[in-house]
Amino acid sequence: MPAKPRLLTALIARLAVFLGLFVLGAANALAAEGESHEGGHEALPLFAEEVVKIGPLSVTNSMIMVWIVAAVLIFFAQAASRNMRLIPGPLQNFVEWLVESLLDFFAGIMGERLAKRTFWFIGTVFILILASNWAGLIPGVGTIGFELEGTGVDAHDKFRPFFRGANADLNLTMAMALTFFVLWFYWSLTEIGPKNFIKHIFAPKGDYKGVVLVLMGALFLAVGVIEVISIAVRPLALMLRLFGNVYAGENMLESLMAMVPNWLKWAPVLPFYFLELLVGFVQALVFAVLCAVFTKLMCEHEDEHEGEHPEEPAAETTPTTS
Question: Does 168 fall in a domain?
Fold first, then answer.
């Protein structure tokens, strides 16, 4: 079983891609919010909030959350793959089931070869988003923090939580969407080549001749321009869909808790926790499936005949006489 540890290690190791991009983007979160809060807030703020400042880097509560989630995932992956056995233990068996199930699922969408090539990203992004969404529902996230003191602190903004749902920060969803956008270009160009890449967008689909070819060429050129706009909008749609759904869910929970006394804050949000568990799974699945579909749509020319092999003619037998 040497392939499984390599696949699992590669899957989790790519978390560093998101973490690096997330650190670069999250440092600008407070700048967008402003140095002072003029109106304050009673619900979840739109931007991640600074917990500590290390030199020029502002460490926000959403950054701390995603670091914790990534550390837990890496720990379990290393623990499951440290001593691989033919008869797996419970942890190894669960991780192998998770990886193999995801790989089979995406192979049904993209084809086995393309799924194996892109699984390190698509599988990782699904696991990371799902774990981050569910971790944001753990009691204490958004409610454990410290009080701000000093002049210039708004009355409604004195509390600063240590943790915030990772995907409720646009920086992380933007980092994942832009990473996919770059990889999508790389996978597409290496799978079908630059020439077929351009033909896939602009060239007429079909065998046309004469005047019809000119007319269809103009039509597909216009369609190609629309396709280019669609490709450019995909990263924006990916990051805003995930951010919007997660932020709205957490904002709803925060608003419900603000309506009741402290000792009763758990009561109004309890029924919605089960809904948010489902929403967290669905959003992780939607993000990963869209990445798989976008990749397949561009790379399908390379894979459309995959697995098709001409059957060898049956060997003819000649009767023999004894």
Answer: yes
Domain assignment present for residue 285? The answer is yes
Give the total number of structural domains in the chain.
1
| Cα 225 from chain centroid (whole Å) | 27
Is 292 inside any structural domain? yes
pLDDT in tens, 269-319: 778 888 889 999 999 999 999 999 999 998 875 444 444 444 444 444 555
Q: Are strands 50-54 and 159-161 parallel, antiparallel or unpaired?
A: unpaired
Neighbouring residues of 293: CB distance < 8 A, sequence distance ≥ 6: 109
Q: The domain containing residue 175 runs over which residues?
A: 3-33+43-302
Q: Are 129 and 284 in contact (CB under 8 A)?
A: yes
Residues whose CB is less than 8 angstroms from the CB of residue 99 and which lie 6 or more positions away in sequence, other chains included: 4, 7, 8, 11, 123
In 3D, which of 86, 99, 90, 92 has the Cα closest to residue 7?
99
Q: CA 162, CA 145: separation in Å to the nearest integer?
A: 5
Number of CB atoms found within 10 A of residue 99's CB:
19
321 located within any domain: no
Question: Both tokens of residue 250?
Answer: 């957490």
The model scores a pTM over 0.85 = no
Q: Tell me which residue of 98, 73, 79 sits closest to 14, measured CA to CA.
A: 73
